[in-house]
Amino acid sequence: MKRINIYYWIATGLVLFFLLPGSVMNIMQTKDWLEVFEQLGYPSYLLPFLGAAKIAGCICIVLPNLRRLKEWAYAGLVFDIVGAIYSALMAGPFDPRLLFMILPLSAIFASYFLWHKKIS
Q: Distance (Å, rounded) from C-alpha 68 to C-alpha 56?
């Protein structure tokens, strides 16, 4: 059980490592993110909302005893990553940098799987 707990916190730490910096930049509406949203055809007012939603999701997966909220948070984070991949693919030709998105997605799945192992 101790091993699963250690692996869970490593995976969850990776989720935070991948998602929190971008979330803060979304809220701040940095120039880079504004350009990305312009290329994708999305309005810039979505940036702070998405950033705040990702931060809220990250907080939920770290806090204990929030089972139902944690399920929703994991789902929301997966939807965010999958939606970003889909948007990038539909907006232009395939960019090999999109393969990097497998890392945060894998970290989310690993954290979710290990969380279920931990609570059962």
A: 14
